[in-house]
């Protein structure tokens, strides 16, 4: 593998780490007891995740495509704008970056885990969970959310943005999805974003954490992948 590909793979690792550090970080601030941001609500979380994506794309974007999401990587490969040979290395880098980002959130909020007894709030800091557990409905929500994400990203490629503006536009897309479609499932729209932090939740020594809810974990993996494939197909039909 040449140096250019290694740099791109590293950029996915680093960018996804920043994404989860800032994204799960805002969840920690809102969810954990005695945090100065405790209880500040969904609007803060939606804006926090939008800015997390924006900053992560700025960090990774000068070294690689800044997918930061296995569903996006698969969609870009399907659309012919990314090499299939790099799909698996990118996904591995994204998952590992997500795990490290979640570990850094744990460290950043270290005193707060012991005073937080709500197991749902702790798990919700790391991974997504549905407001109403209905697997078919939850799956549909993740498919729709990721469809909008990927179709938006692919459509952006048809526009000429001022240098440096693209990450802000992507952040606006994430904010819109979070505010409009995030309520039912917490809008994972990214398999690495959910699986990596859920794995960190499983292994980190948090005495009050409870279970990692692996029964639900397939939804934020499969749903985004299906949504990405459908969006890629629709985009190719249009373009």
From TrEMBL:
Location(s) in or outside the cell: Membrane
Coiled-coil annotated spans: none
Highest taxon of the lineage: Bacteria
Annotated keywords: Membrane, Transmembrane, Transmembrane helix, Transport
Name of one Pfam family that matches: MIP
A GO CC annotation given for this chain: plasma membrane
Topology versus the membrane: Multi-pass membrane protein
Chief localisation class: membrane
Molecular function as annotated in GO: glycerol channel activity
PANTHER family: AQUAPORIN OR AQUAGLYCEROPORIN RELATED (PTHR43829), AQUAPORIN-9 (PTHR43829:SF9)
Family membership noted in the UniProt record: Belongs to the MIP/aquaporin (TC 1.A.8) family.
Protein name in UniProt: Aquaporin family protein
Species of provenance: Enterococcus plantarum
Source species taxonomy: Bacteria, Bacillati, Bacillota, Bacilli, Lactobacillales
């Amino acid at each position: 593998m040449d140096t250019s590909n290694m740099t791109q793979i590293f950029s996915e690792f680093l960018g996804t780490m920043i994404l989860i550090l800032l994204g799960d970080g805002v969840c920690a601030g809102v969810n954990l007891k005695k945090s100065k941001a405790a209880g500040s609500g969904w609007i803060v979380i939606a804006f926090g995740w939008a800015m997390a994506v924006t900053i992560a794309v700025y960090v990774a974007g000068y070294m690689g495509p800044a997918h930061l999401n296995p569903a996006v990587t698969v969609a870009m490969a399907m659309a012919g704008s990314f090499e299939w040979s790099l799909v698996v290395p990118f996904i591995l880098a994204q998952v590992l970056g997500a795990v490290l980002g979640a570990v850094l959130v744990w460290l950043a909020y270290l005193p707060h885990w012991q005073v937080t007894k709500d197991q749902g709030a702790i798990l919700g800091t790391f991974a997504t969970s549905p407001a109403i557990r209905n697997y078919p409905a939850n799956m549909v929500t993740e498919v729709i959310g990721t469809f909008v994400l990927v179709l938006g990203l692919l459509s952006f490629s048809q526009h000429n943005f001022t240098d440096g503006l693209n990450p802000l536009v992507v952040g606006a897309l994430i904010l819109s999805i979070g505010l409009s479609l995030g309520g039912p499932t917490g809008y994972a729209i990214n398999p690495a974003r959910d699986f990596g932090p859920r794995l960190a939740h499983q292994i980190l020594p948090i005495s009050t954490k409870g279970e990692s809810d692996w029964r639900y974990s397939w939804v934020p993996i499969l749903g985004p992948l299906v949504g990405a494939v459908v969006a890629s197909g629709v985009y190719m039909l249009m373009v």
